[in-house]
Amino acid sequence: MSKSLFERLGGTEGITCIVDDTVETHMNNPAISARFIPYKEQPERLAVIKQHTVDFFSAGSGGPANYSGRDMPTTHTGMNISPGEYMHVIDDIFVALDKNAIDEDSKKDVLYILWSLKGMVISQ
User: Fold this and answer.
1) What are the pLDDT digits (tens) for 11-30?
2) Structural domain for 30, as ranges
3) Considering its fold, how many domains does the chain have in total?
């Protein structure tokens, strides 16, 4: 039996590392950093957002997580994220995947998930 994407990403521990690395990369990406840097002053809020992201991606990748956050359109309403910004987010996620030595097939699966979410995030 083949492993789930959750398992291939390293389970909860691996996904947590990927989320941490992604957020750090977002904060250093001049194209989108303005959306993320304010959370440096709100560490409790940032911790909640990271945990929701870990739970969301864990549940969506076949893991035993219980996502209790808002849905994607509700979460992103009013943010008016552009297609270009979304592409920067995807690029940053792939930097984190590479940093965590995620294999090519798993990266393709992640890209499929991210691409399926774009309509729920862009221009909300």
Assistant:
1) 999 999 999 999 999 999 99
2) 5-121
3) 1
